[in-house]
Each structure stands twice: as C-alpha cells, then as structure tokens.
Write a structure and sequence with these properties.
single chain, alpha/beta, 6-stranded mixed sheet, about 15% strand, globular, PGM_Phosphatase, Histidine phosphatase family protein, PG/BPGM_mutase_AS
Length: about 190
C-alpha cells in the first residue's frame, strides 16, 4: 500500500438535488438550509483537531466550494481547488431522477447507475483520477469533495478495492480522518 499523508475528507452538505433525488455528477445545485447546518457541523468537528500545517483543497464545483467556505471558516485559509476532486461524471444521466433511472434500467441500486451511465466516467477512471491526485499530495490535507469521489478516495487511502464502494461509510455533516491506512468517522457527538 502507498504511504499517504494524513487527510480529513468531507462531503458537501445536502443540496436541493440530493433532497429531490436528482443525480448531480458535474452539474450543480445549491445547498439546502440543512446542507448549511451540516457544513457548520463539519466546522465544529474540524475545530476540535490540530490542523496546523494542513492544506485545504476543494472540488471547484459550487456545492463543494460553498461547503468548504463554511466548514473551514476560521480553521484553514486559503482554500485551493482541484478538478480532480470533482464528482464522478454521469454523462447523459446528469440531472436525471435517480429512482426513475433505476426503474427504467433495472439497476440494482443507485451505485450501479454510475457504471451504466452513457458517456459517464465509470469507477475505474474515477479511481485512476483519485490515485493520481493522492500521489500528488504534498502533505497533510483537508479535502472537500462529493459522495462517490469521497468514497473512492477513502477506499484508496485504506487500501481497499473498488468493489467495496457500497460498503464504505458515507454521509453529510461528518468528517472522515484517514491516516496510516485507517479511517475514522468523526461526528459532533464523537
């Protein structure tokens, strides 16, 4: 397994499209009031940790960058952006209703849609993109990204195969600390 610096990984807060079940991919929608609260919770979590010397790197997509601005306010400055942290590409299905696509395609779940999407990026390409990004990290970092990209990054950091994507924790309003190949889920209460 590669040796990576310690990282904290955040998924953006809830968006309007998360709430209505629309797939976003490279599209964007605004944070909901709950998404703003979740981003503030992430800030409260991060403030309890020593982050001197940590870089902050966010996906340039609006929902992630807004989450980064809220979650890192008074914690880390400046916030860099890197397109490698963007969400997995959904091709022709970006903006579509998740439940309707599952019904139409017979996909076993929402995760399967990322592999089936016409013109989509797929998991193998996403993993390659995330591996390149992680190999280029120059030191400890706080990464603000998206649901599927966050899971892939944490799979790589913990030395797990892509097949475990469905099984690795996810969530909004939490922070994952990964160091030495081990992941820890950090919450307000823990």
């Amino acid at each position: 397994m590669n040796s990576f610096p310690p990282v904290y990984v955040l998924r953006h807060g809830e968006t309007e499209w998360n709430l209505t079940g629309r797939l976003q991919g490279r599209f964007d929608s605004a944070l909901t009031p709950e998404g703003i609260v979740q981003s503030r919770m992430q800030r409260d979590i991060l403030r309890r940790h020593e982050l001197a010397g940590f870089a902050a790197i966010s996906s340039p997509q609006g929902r992630a960058l807004e989450t980064a601005r809220i979650a890192l306010e008074g914690v880390i400055d400046p916030i860099a952006t890197d397109p490698a942290l963007s969400e997995i590409g959904l091709g022709d299905w970006a903006g579509e209703d998740r439940a309707a696509l599952i019904a139409r395609t017979g996909a076993c779940d929402g995760f399967a849609l990322y592999e089936l999407a016409p013109g989509g990026e797929g998991f193998a390409a996403l993993r390659s993109r995330c591996e390149r990004f992680l190999r280029g990290l120059e030191g400890p970092s706080v990464l603000i990204t998206h649901g599927i990209t966050s899971r892939m990054i944490r799979l790589i950091l913990t030395g797990r195969p892509t097949a475990e994507l469905r099984r690795i924790d996810g969530g909004q309003g939490v922070v994952f600390r990964v160091a030495g190949g081990r992941q820890e889920r950090l919450t307000i209460g823990g």
